[in-house]
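Allow me, if you will, to draw on your knowledge of protein folds for a short while. The matter concerns a single protein, recorded as an amino acid sequence and a row of backbone structure tokens. Could you please explain, in whatever detail you think fit, how the structure tokens follow from the sequence? I remain grateful for any guidance, and I place the record below:

…
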Amino acid sequence: MHNVLKTIVGGIMMTGFVAIASFIGIKASDDTLIADLNGDGTEEIVTYYQDINPLDNGDIDYSFKMTVNGKKAYEEGGLIERYPEATEENRLHDKLDHLKNINVTVVDVNPEDNTKEIVASYYADVDNILLSMKVFKYNNGKLKVVSEYNPEGAHAYVPTEQNSNKYIKVNVETYTPVFGNIWLTKNYKLTKKGFVEKTNKNGVYTIAPARYEENKLAKYTAAWTFEVFANKNCMVDDSIGMVGEGETYVVKKVIFLEDNEFGPMKAYIKAASGLKGWIFIDNETDETGKLYNEYAVK
């Protein structure tokens, strides 16, 4: 379900543990972390440096390096061209365009072992978009990249609140014909084969706030009166009230009925009147491509 969500499994989920890093590592200062990275019982001191310089022509010159116990353990950098002339595979422009800062933290992506990892998250200067992510393991005095992901075609972020180490939450922007862009919360677990989405047995996805809208759910206005039901079956006998024309409401949960965001869907809403329940939205279109049931949004 949701191809764009499937594409982020490779590495974007790793940062979900950022929110709980205080339980498994110590941030001694803005550029120093203290943690037992290799499980030998001795804490390492990780110091990281970043130098990101926007140039007059729009390019960005950057360098990023980390030391462990005072010795160089990792280094990268280069020129990020804003308008590259040549098409090259894996060029920095495609990965890090608009790079603003690199957030570094200690995480425990696999609580079953006694090691911890370093995660570097690369963010843009536009809406805090996540550009790239790298996960490092420490071995023989070096920090080695063990997972890397460069998102394509979707905005995503890791919410600050996380429930546990076992699963992590990632909020991803997804387009729907009726509600436009909505943000879905997905849960993933790290296994030996990589990140695997937690089984969603009931098909219900929670709506998350947009990253750049101050942590608030989007409000919609009813184009005209529509019915609300007590449960997701949306049967006539389960009707509990109506949302009137012009009334505002927020969407709290959604169900995609045809395994993609373009088919019929159901949504759990809360109206300004306090009425809470499910609505059914049929995304069928006429010969011009206009939605028949555009009633839900004004």
